[in-house]
Design goal:
By secondary structure, the protein is an alpha/beta fold. It has three domains: 170 residues, Rossmann fold (3-Layer(aba) Sandwich); 161 residues, Dihydrodipicolinate Reductase, domain 2; 83 residues, ACT domain (Alpha-Beta Plaits, 2-Layer Sandwich), CATH 3.30.70.260. Helices cover 38% and strands 24% of the residues. It is built from 15 helices and 17 strands. Strands 7, 8, 9, 10, 11, 12, 13, 14, 15, 16 and 17 form an eleven-stranded mixed β-sheet that branches. α2 packs parallel to α13, α5 packs parallel to α6 and α8 packs across α9. The structure holds L-homoserine. The site of L-homoserine has 7 residues, from α8.
Amino acid sequence: MKPIQVGLLGIGTVGSGTFQVLQRNQQEIERRAGRGIAITMVADLNTERARELVASLGGDGVRVVADAREVIANPDIDIVVELIGGYGIAKALVMEAIAAGKHVVTANKALLAVHGTEIFEAAQKRGVMVAFEAAVAGGIPIIKALREGLSANRIQWVAGIINGTTNFILSEMRDKGLDFDVVLKEAQRLGYAEADPTFDIEGVDAAHKATLMSAIAFGIPVQFDKAYVEGITKLAGADIRYAEQLGYRIKLLGIAKRAKGGIELRVHPSLIPAKRLIANVEGAMNAVVVQGDAVGTTLYYGKGAGSEPTASAVIADLVDVTRLHTADPHHRVPHLAFQPGSLSNLPVLPMSEVVTSYYLRLRVADEAGVLAQVTGLLAQSGISIDAVLQREAEEGTRQTDLIILTHDTREGTMNDALAQIQALPAVLAPVVRIRKEELN
Ligand code: HSE
């Protein structure tokens, strides 16, 4: 049988990795897919660089064009791989490819988290597949695991370190005792963080990925606009050290959780017990923990970015699409794991309704009765304390840090209690609040 024909839109880091791995492992891949998979067209605005790259990768006979629409219009192309990124032109091209009856493979988490509903509906109508394993946690096959491997389960929660840049920064802050700004600069110098790192450090990239996981874990539409997003820019080295003394590590977690009355969908720094495996995921690595009612806890670990790790996910999608290319569209795995007519309308809960425990750090006047005032206000709000740590007053000052760990409480209740605590004259600086997840 002649190979299935693939057109690449964009040949950057992931595109060239895809080219390279497909070439290197072509026989192994063909034995799996049942036919060859050949990239026959590449579209890239920088055609000169793309031609050089394709030639250096041994891509004889591959057509390189500047206009992505030439790839979409080519009747010989069966699968379009979108590696442009962003919501702009990438969205138009994906919609056009679907309309032209092409299957789409994409690594574009931003596009799917924001416009997924429209894209999946269009694909469903046209009878084509949109595969997106590379969009979440790079090389880790977490989409496959959630959508197929765990399909017996009622999934309770998914929690992941799904942004390598921020995990690298947090690991460095902890290892070297440095503050965020210093480590960010170092991460940019080493190429771990982009020149404009906003999406990573503000938690947006992780929220895109958590949104996609929430949809396939619970069978709800993709709703990035409902996600709570908080990054790591305000984390102080002091909190990482205090957390450590209390037996916790701080990680940026993407969390999707089944709760009373809805789904929690949130990204924020979280204390997690140092003894959990996921707490020991360091550097730019990713990991996702999934809790299902039948299987219990499962953990997935690997490289969340990079040329060949991400290509590994792109090619796995190409193999899937190739195998199912001729199958009746109704017999394929649904895009969001659940049949399109069986999606749930469980709401994504507002952050005020989320229930979790907390780490609080208060800079207070070291005077009699201050601890009692603070714990009194927590008690009045029905917030139960798990642990308290008080440092000796700093030399030459009459100020100290008071660290409090709480048991589970509603975020709205905590907000009200914190407003009252903040108003105490003995509380000398904005209270630091970091959520805590036991992940058990
Ligand atoms: N910028 C992402 C990260 C990789 O740092 O993990 C692509 O999503």
